[in-house]
Amino acid sequence: MNIYPRLFDELKPHWKLLCGSVGFSIVMAAMEMVPAALTRPLIDDAIYGKNWPLLKLLGAALLVALVFRTIAHFARMVFTGRLAHRVLYQVRTKLYEHLQSLSLSFYQNKRTGQIMSRVTNDVAVLEQFIVEGIRESLVNVLRVVIIAAILFHTNPQLALLTLIPTVPLIWLTRMFQKRIGTAYRQMRRRLADMNSILSDTIGGIRVVQIFGQEEFEAQKFRAKGQEFADAGIATQFMQALYFPSVALAFGVGQVIVWLYGGREVLQGRLSPGALVMFSGYVSQFYAPVQTLANSANLFANTSASAERIYEILDTQPDISSVEQPHSMPEMEGQIELENVSFGYDSGENSIEGLNLNVEAGQMIGLVGPSGSGKSTLVSLITRFYDVKEGAVKIDGHDVREVDLKDLRANISVVPQEAYLFHGTIRDNIAYGRPDASFEDVMNAAHGANAHDFIMRLSDAYDTHVGERGAKLSGGERQRISIARAILDDPKILILDEATSAVDTESEVAIQTALDRLMLGRTTLAIAHRLSTVKNADKLVVMEQGKIVEEGTHDELIALEDGLYKRLVEMQTKLGSEEEV
Question: Taking residues 265-285, what's their average pLDDT?
Fold first, then answer.
């Protein structure tokens, strides 16, 4: 995978900064050549010739070159710094925004830490590539060409001898670049594994501590850390073989210059000043050649990181709007499933030949054993997944042909575990409508029976909820989630066991808030606690991905040996035993 054309595409919008960086680098490189160029006249003409005015003139020329080099160095750093950080911002933002568009199936196959590693660590590698790789490579190639021309002009035979060490160096560099690239990819994978464990452990620190698994998690982290260390040691070993070999090759070149050039001086065919100048240019020649050789390390590292970045950017979302979607800014909320079948990548269909009709404004209770397909059904309505067969329709329109933003703008979900973002209570309630007024936020909180407990907090609506709402209780988080749905004002409401994870007192407050929220909306409520959907307009009983019963509570209770009736009897018996 040749990623460099794509990396250069990232630079195109910032071509002015790139030109400035390269331009001032060329000026700086040119000023660095001035001292070596003046060495011969300084020694042969000014010092040996005892020419004081010439010595002062050449000294002034050296000082001017130093000042210009300093100015060029400053300007180069400014231009390069701006270029690097703007490109990094561009790539990181593009990567983050693309991640937002990817379907749930992508995240099911990736760990959070691995994704974070690509957004942070892999993108950061590009900074070094821009600061050192692009600029230095271009400038050093220019240095090598100019200095080589000067050397051959000064003494062709000596110049040819100094190039002898570069022949094995080219072969060595190619071998090194091939192997170090594999090593860097290995290191990136190991680092992503470490980040994944870190993300899992911090996110589930309560579970880790309550079960006393600190040492178990530490062992997992140490194992992955050791793998990363081993990969790093192998990489360093290759570098330890390569870089000293490069230095040795260039050292041999310098020895050749002094031996052959010294003989030329002794035989009168070369002046001492010319030899010192030649030696200076050889040092300046080997320096950029060595830098170019060292760039093999940087380019291999960049390639490994860029491949991981573009792997994500090249991933297309499974779920997206068609080219000319049907716009539905306003919905009635009528839902119809026609002969729907769906299965995850892992195997058999979890829903098979399902038909269901929900009238606008109806409240439907979805009940059934775990794994019967209830959550999958609502995921198809929200179009987190697409059906394999059949169709899901809203107001008569296939959801695959409806604009995805319009579809989801009219649907709200109150999940079993409310997810709150780091920020204030007000921010979380207004998440779906960031432009909502404070009065609207407060009215939504009133509707969710949340206002009273919010006002008892230290900063009321400006109270920070902590990571994932850690500073609030489960019931409080759930009421914030309901307030968020109230403010969103959806046409279709999905309740995914919204009261199953809270205590009885909180359940009463939450259920009252939900009753208000459901008024005038099409509602699908998944419930294991059957008492919460007893008054639904229709109960849909699912088993093994199929609808086995439909009707009101009284109608289903009247069925002999019906699944719903058995579930109610089991819960009633369990409740009686708990009371005892």
Answer: 72
* CA angle (381 as vertex; 487, 513 as ends), nearest 5: 30
Question: Quick check: helix, strand or coil at residue 496?
Answer: strand
d(CA 467, CA 373): 31
Say what the pTM is.
0.65
Question: Which residues have CB under 8 Å from 439's CB, separation 6+?
Answer: none
Helices (H), 386-503: 404-409, 425-429, 438-447, 451-455, 474-488
Q: Any residues with CB less than 8 A from the CB of 123 and at least 6 apart, and which?
A: 88, 91, 92, 95, 305, 309
d(CA 303, CA 185): 9
Helix (H, G, I), strand (E, B) or coil at 220: helix
Q: Each residue of 214-241: pLDDT tens digit?
A: 777 778 778 887 887 888 777 777 777 7
Helix, strand and coil content of the chain, in percent to the nearest 5, comes to 65, 10, 25
Mean pLDDT, residues 123-146 taken together: 72
User: pLDDT tens-digit profile of 54-95?
Assistant: 778 878 888 888 888 888 888 888 888 788 888 888 888 888
For the chain, the farthest-separated pair of C-alpha atoms sits apart, in whole angstroms, at 121
Q: CA-to-CA distance for 38 and 65, rounded, in angstroms? A: 11
**pLDDT of the residue at 541:** 84
**For the chain, which domains are there?**
4-313 (1.20.1560.10), 328-410+524-580 (3.40.50.300)
- Of 40-54, 120-134, 496-510, the least confident: 496-510
- Scan for tokens 């009940």, then name that residue: 367
C-alpha radius of gyration, the chain, whole number: 35
What region does 500 belong to: left with phi over 0, alpha with psi -120 to 50, or beta?
alpha
Q: How far apart are CA 360 and CA 332, in angstroms?
A: 6
Q: How many CB atoms lie within 10 A of CB 341?
A: 15
Q: Measured in Å, how far apart are the chain's first and last C-alpha atoms?
A: 68
